[in-house]
Amino acid sequence: MAAAAAAAVGGPQPPQPELPAPGLALDKAATAAHLKAALSRPDNRAGAEELQALLERVLSAERPLAVAADSEEAAAGGGGGGGPGAAEEEALEWCKCLLAGGGGYEEFCAAVRAYDPAALCGLVWTANFVAYRCRTCGISPCMSLCAECFHQGDHTGHDFNMFRSQAGGACDCGDSNVMRESGFCRRHQIKSSSNIPCVPKDLLMMSEFVLPRFIFCLIQYLREGYNEPAADVPSEKDLNKVLQLLEPQISFLEDLTKMGGAMRSVLTQVLTNQQNYKDLTSGLGENTCAKKSHEKYLIALKSSGLTYPEDKLVYGVQEPSAGTSALAVQGFAGATGTLGQLDSSDEEDQDGSQGLGKRKRVKLSSSTKDQSIMDVLKHKSFLEELLFWTIKYEFPQKMVTFLLNMLPDQEYKVAFTKTFVQHYAFIMKTLKKSHESDTMSNRIVHISVQLFSNEELARQVTEECQLLDIMVTVLLYMMESCLIKSELQDEENSLHVVVNCGEALLKNNTYWPLVSDFINILSHQSVAKKFLEDHGLLVTWMNFVSFFQGMNLNKRELNEHVEFESQTYYAAFAAELEACAQPMWGLLSHCKVRETQEYTRNVVRYCLEALQDWFDAINFVDEPAPNQVTFHLPLHRYYAMFLSKAVKCQELDLDSVLPDQEMLMKLMIHPLQIQASLAEIHSNMWVRNGLQIKGQAMTYVQSHFCNSMIDPDIYLLQVCASRLDPDYFISSVFERFKVVDLLTMASQHQNTVLDAEHERSMLEGALTFLVILLSLRLHLGMSDDEILRAEMVAQLCMNDRTHSSLLDLIPENPNPKSGIIPGSYSFESVLSAVADFKAPVFEPGGSMQQGMYTPKAEVWDQEFDPVMVILRTVYRRDVQSAMDRYTAFLKQNGKFPGNPWPPYKKRTPLHPSYKGLMRLLHCKTLHIVLFTLLYKILMDHQNLSEHVLCMVLYLIELGLENSADEESDEEASVCGPERCHDSWFPGSNLVANMRHFINYVRVRVPETAPEVKRDSPASTSSDSLGSLQSSRRPKVLQRENSGTAQVFSLVAERRKKFQEIINRSSNEANQVVRPKTSSKWSAPGSAPQLTTAILEIKESILSLLIKLHHKLSGKQNSYYPPWLDDIEILIQPEIPKYSHGDGITAVERILLKAALQSRMNKRIIEEICRKVTPPVPPRKVTAAEKKTLDKEERRQKARERQQKLLAEFASRQKSFMETAMDVDSPENDIPMEIATAEPQVSEAVYDCVICGQSGPSSEDRPTGLVVLLQASSVLGQCRDNTEPKKLPITEEEQIYPWDTCAAVHDVRLSLLQRYFKDSSCLLAVSIGWEGGVYVQTCGHTLHIDCHKSYMESLRNDQVLQGFSVDKGEFTCPLCRQFANSVLPCYPGSNMENNLWQRPSNKSIHDLIKEVEELQGRPGAFPVSISSETNLSKEMESVMKDIKNTTQKKYRDYSKTPGSPDNDFLFMYSVARTNLELELIHRGGNLCSGGASTAGKRSCLNQLFHVLALHMRLYSIDSEFNPWRKLTQLEEMNSQLGNEEQQPEVPILYHDVTSLLLIQILMMPQPLRKDHFTCIVKVLFALLYTQALAALSVKCNEEDRSAWKHTGALKKNTCDAEKSYKVLLSFVISELSKGKLYHEEGAQECAMVSPTAWSSESMEKYLQDFCLPFLRITSLLQHHLFGEDLPSCQEEEEFSVLSSCLGLLPTFYQTEHPFISASCLDWPVPAFDIIAQWCSEINSFTERHAEQGKALLIQESRWKLPHLLQLPENYNTIFQYYHRKTCSVCTKVPKDPAVCLVCGTFVCLKGLCCKQQSYCECVLHSQNCGAGTGIFLLVNASVIIIIRGHRFCLWGSVYLDAHGEEDRDLRRGKPLYICKERYKVLEQQWISHTFDHINKRWGPHYNGL
Asked: Where are the beta strands (DSSP E) in 758-906?
């Protein structure tokens, strides 16, 4: 084929010779100019022909695709020199040249743009683009704006949000069809077309000639490249290859569209011109290539399913041939063969095995056009064929973008929309076959939403192209491919077919693009009206809906647990919601006014017809099949919702749209079945069906589904109940809930359909359902605002809610145009009326709250509605939660102390149409049930609960509230007890029946029952409970034998009613109908014989209520009618006293209402109360009953015990947590002393938290502290200014880290290492500012051997922990704090400590000598290191842990790797890091004093022992010991000897704090206090000298000379050594001998601060210089010797600390102006030693004066570390960073993140920046924070913490106006910084408590 194609190319014209490029360009330009001139002549035929020939030649250059498609090798070989790519580029160059007509292409573009009437933006974007939607400005709900137009427009105060596009979209700015003009941005505010000049004819002339050929060429490429995929191999690879090759061409077209309106209109002409298309593509003419291409096109058309059998849709009898009516289902529903041909007689090959069963042919109404909708495609223009190929290639993104970019052209828009509709069926077929249906769906919707959101356009297409017909047909057709036989009701003979939810089509939601288009067009009124008027369409649509009726049928598993839990129910619920309910809501939104009554009648009529067909198809008679339930009844719900609308908005008469009684009876069966099944599922009767059945029950009531599912169902039942016979309805309910047998007066009964354990909950379910049915008013008269309020109150009562979760939980009308949109005015106003806002609070544990709404007090008081709560809870625990909150409210407000019952709430009045519903409350059946239940509760029968009683009372109260007022007392008094032989109650009015006494009842009981023994009184003729029949039909009551009463069952009664209604036309109704006892009710063999017994009752409902009051209150005669004392009560019935309370209150309220309603009742209540009530007769208790009672009692007691234990445990745990876990609040802490400090105990005692033993730590069994070691760079982040740096939000702002503490120290060390001896340098500074090891403990101790076995058990534990045991991580066994090592406690006694602390009176010189000796003596460690004890082993291992905690680069600073000096430096720096960090935790100074939080859990003491032990292994040569230099004068000559090697660091360049730590750690431990003080004094002298030297360098020449003189005069006074002026002058004079001060004068002046130094400022400088040292030293003393730190004001910190350290003689403190020099205590004559120190510096500055100066000034005043300061509004961060490119790969990262410590921009998970398998965030966390990283994820607004190998999501520091986070920016509302949260984050960072406070850690495997 390649050869053929090549030959074809070389057709008539010879191939063009390859010219060298420069020449070619000239040639092209010249040719183009020549052609343009030729074409501009009036007679341009010749020019046109020449151009055609040229184009023919250029555009057919070496068909690259044919080659590429056939020979892979060419591509693999790089395509050779002039391969396919070159030819294409050549062609494109020619086109550009020709379009520009000889000019430059760029200039041409600019010229065309000038003529752009930019009224529309039309920017097209693809998935993941960030766009905006403003509901205030939008007309269509799909309106969207690009970021630029949004920010240019004014949307302040609007309801807008930012969103990430799912499918892509286009900017609507400037389109007044979709949005209001007020929202347009500045650029698109309607320019009138007048000021745009007319386009000159010749500018675009060439385009009109060139473009048709170009587009045709593109189409030919597409034709060529398409190969029909083989049956099984998806051909995506080939298609993508073709598309890649075409990329430049399509991009070229796309660029053309961006040139503006002028070019777009040319393109439109070209694309829609039918003549052009005909000429070029007909495939005639001699060009073989064109012919071939046309053939390929035809093949593609053919194979597009126009001959595939599955695409034949059978239309009734329009196609008589039996062959065509084969519905082939290859590849569907698992069928392999073709289903037998279904001809008109519906015969069928029994192919049930395939799970397909028989299919009913779908007869479409004749109004639908014909088969052509599905099968015929005829292309008449380029546009049509381009769209065809776009679909064929499964919507390549580039093509979609090109087609959409053209939309701002109005003419194109219409043409394209029509083309799109024409291809609709084809789109559906391609979508069904596609392997990438998700991507494809998104691309389809990307297009269709732009077309169908425009009402004008949608209307036009509906009228001209039968849009509705096409859509409905296509949907119907799509679903037909996955139908199966319904197994509902009658499995064998059912003719009904339903969709199979397991099919990919439903499971993957493949249908959604089509459904969403349908919903979109139905939102336009003009289109919806057409739909509602078209009967044929309605019939088809109902046909479509019936496919979903009864889908996903559940069958109750009775024996085995189901093997495989299918999750198809997701698909089923989604399908009903999207394909049925949403279109329904769309239609309903247009049926709001009286004028639309006709529409409703149409829908209701066809809906009923479809329902009738459905009942016939499933062979439904009167009983539903047992143990089956489907939650999907869309036809019922359509019917219900249209009825509701009709009554509520259209003033239709309800009866005119209701069917006959028989149909109503059928209609109520399935919804009622669902309600009963809900109760069964909650009673665990479906437990063998697995969890998914619970999932269905929850989804059915869940907020997104409830108003399309449970609400219509309940409404439909309410309608049926209001029109059917109440006795029939009530008995149906109890029968459906399977509790009929329980409703007997007998104490024992047989239930043939329910296990005893389920009876109670099913009875509760039945009563609760009745309460909901009777009290819910959602569709029975509530206004929309009342509904919204009730929903909101119900949700808030369950739990406090955030604003967004409320929006989510309140069922909004799923159709966006319905009016109540989230965030609409009514939502906010109702919310503010019912709820208070609780701003987010911060708990010290670190769990962050969001802003919550909580119900106002008056809402709890008056509006809390338990019924609504029960209806709306997904989880049963939410009902309990609401009750608990209600209880708490009542207690708090003193309204009711005990456990209240759910309050009774008054209802909104019923709409008159539904008055019949209240007859349920006044029917004998219900009264008998209520009476029976009250009696049973009073007699303590089993299986009754408080909930049952509560519901019974609720129903009685509902009846009293809704009683008919016809009853007069006089008439009632006649009816005495004697008239009631044959029936329970005289009438049907509850008020009258309440006082009716029932004497005897005959019951059927098992022979074993206690009642049997009694003799029956002769006069009994009362009915058994079973016959709940009314007295209205005396004929039925004629008895065959007058002696015994007949026993009816509820069922029989119902059957009889049912038959009566069905046979009411014939005479049979007048005959006695003998009830058929249903077989179900005779229990086979197992049951004992039933016998009849007669019970003596002698109670009325009123008397039962009064006795119940006694029973509940536990007192005899507790009820006293309140009106006897206060007659007022009867006049004003609403008494607040009765509105909240428990059962007693409810009973009182009911009796009061009964008395109010009739004088008779009042009298009878008084009578009953007068009789002193005899105690309830004791029942005979049988042995069996006794057993169960005892069991119950024992259980109850056990339960109480358990509760008690749990409570005790909880309180213990709580008190423990308070002492141990509290991280952030020092106030309420009891400091946990590690070692008890009482002097009488000789040795420190430790408790092991694992084995619980306590004892001292010994060498062979050492105890250790649980510690967490972590590397930290917090210290390194200190800067020298207080203002924290800002996060950069523009290109200009950058953060440079040169001024951080870590950087300064690094520079200093490398400077020293340049000039001085390495080993000496490493003693002159501290490291650990970056990557220092911080040690913290929870304060708990354990034996080290116990710890090892604990770790072993953790290792074997397979539970996934959040930490890695292999790395030594664990949680403290007691407080569960995270830890990773154990620090051995040094065995030592406290007595010893006290001895060491006694002050001694030795002189400083003696002490100095002692110190020197002790340092020189290596073995002077109480534990000899030579002997390997357990303790020393542990000390070594913990030292190893400490080293491994940080990275090597933070440990090795020496030039000779592995030198011991390195370890030495590292070890004392660990001590330094911990002291410095503690100082920071205390706020950077010690003014607060006291034992801080750090004090109680400090492990410094133990740490010091470990470090000291290891430091002593490296003894410093006494030669180099700095102690000598500090305390002895050396002979000057010794210095001259070592010139040849590098000198040591001069002592004045040493860091004094480091020296302190070295000196102390070199001493044998425990250290004596006087030695400590001695060391401090010596070092203070050095420090002071450094301060003076630094000061002298800071000031200018004149100052220096002045000071030099003033000081020199006082040199010989007595306290010269303690006067800073003298010392300063001496330092200056000494240093002047060197070159330190010699510099260029100019520089000098610039550097110096102009302010002259006063003595105060000098004193302050000196104190500030020395303070950091004093602070660290005081802390050290506090830890080593346990002395408290005094608290003080900031200004006196220096003096307080120095006296605390013993630097100040005690008598000295009286002098008021404090002078720092008074602390000096020189070990040797001051001037001599100073001279010695200065001389070292002088010898250095001889060579390097500049550096000498820099090294002297040590900046020691670091401010506290801070995170970066963040901007107020999140949008500023987002807009800058989410488009910022990655510095490595220059692409925009998918997940950009910013480090909040240093502001570095990183890619989260970005593969581009990966280095040695570490992703960038992890790498950065190691470099910036030594393993701790704090990153803000820009696209999610969330902060993520990386700690070592773990990470956690910390939460967000940006909250919206309602105090909520918006993770992933899903809601896209504006976010503002929450300062408190940010402070908490910073606090956790500084205090290193991320590990303890955040609970959800996971490993990141270096992939972040």
From this structure: 835-838, 852-855
Say how far apart CA 1608 and CA 1629 lie, in whole Å.
9
Closest CA relative to residue 420, chosen from 450, 459, 397, 398: 450
**More confident call, 1545 vs 3:** 1545
For residue 632, pLDDT beyond 90: yes
Confidence of residue 1518 (pLDDT cuts 50, 70, 90): low
Alpha carbon distance 1004, 1093 (integer Å): 6
Q: Where are the alpha helices (DSSP H) in 71-126?
A: 72-76, 84-100, 105-113
Are 1733 and 1548 a contacting pair, CB within 8 Å? Answer: yes
> Phi-psi region for residue 1786, left (φ > 0), alpha (ψ -120 to 50) or beta?
left
Burial of 805 (0-12, 13-18, 19+ CB in 10 A): middle
Query: How confident is the model over 303-346, as pLDDT tens digits?
Result: 765 533 333 333 333 333 333 223 332 233 333 333 333 333 33
Name the band, by pLDDT with cuts 50, 70 and 90, for residue 1389: very low
Task: With a cut of 60, say whether residue 2 has pLDDT above it.
Answer: no
Place of tokens 């709001």: 592
pTM equals 0.80
The b-or-e profile of 30-45 (16+ CB within 10 A means b, else e) is ebbeebbebbeeeebe
- DSSP string of 1634-1666, one letter each residue: TTTT---HHHHHHHS-SSPPPHHHHHHHHHHHH
CA neighbor of 523 nearest in space, from 139, 212, 891, 221: 139
* pLDDT tens digits along 1823-1861: 999 999 999 999 999 999 999 989 999 989 999 999 998
- The one-letter amino acid code at 1387 reads P
The whole-angstrom distance between residue 569's C-alpha and the CA centroid of its chain comes to: 23
∠ Cα 303 306 311 (to 5°):
115
**Looking at beta carbons, which pairs linking 405-410 to residues 24 or more positions away fall under 8 Å?**
405/122, 405/124, 405/254, 405/257, 405/258, 406/257, 406/264, 406/267, 406/268, 406/271, 407/122, 407/170, 407/450, 408/119, 408/120, 408/122, 408/261, 408/264, 409/261, 409/264, 409/265, 409/267, 409/268
Q: What is the dihedral of CA 35, 37, 42, 43, to 10 degrees?
A: -40
Measured between its terminal Cα atoms, the distance across the chain in Å is: 50
CA distance 907 to 914: 14
CA distance 859 to 886: 10
Cα–Cα nearest to 1731, from 1872, 1585, 1516 = 1585
Higher pLDDT, 544 or 279: 544
- Residue keyed to tokens 């610039």: 1646
- CA 29/CA 441 separation, integer angstroms: 45
1694-1699-1702 Cα angle (round to 5): 130
Output the six-digit token pair for 1295.
Answer: 């953060």
The arrangement of strands across the sheet holding 1381-1384 comes to 1332-1343, 1263-1272, 1381-1384
Return the pLDDT at 1136: 63
Across the range 1522-1551, mean pLDDT stands at 69
CB 948 within 8 A of CB 743: no
> Please, what is the Cα angle at 1309 between 1303 and 1310, to 5 degrees?
90
Whether 259 and 113 have beta carbons less than 8 Å apart is answered as yes
309: buried, middle or exposed (CB in 10 Å: 19+, 13-18, 0-12)? middle
pLDDT: which is higher, 1084 or 1682: 1682
SS3 854: strand
Q: How many alpha carbons lie under 13 Å from residue 1562 in its C-beta half-sphere?
A: 26
Q: Is the dihedral of CA 1817, 1822, 1824, 1827 positive or negative?
A: positive
Q: How far is the CA of 1769 from the CAs of 1282, 1330, 1763, 1832, 1856, in angstroms?
A: 23, 32, 17, 14, 10
Write down the mean pLDDT value for the chain.
78
Q: Give the tokens for residue 50.
A: 């020449």
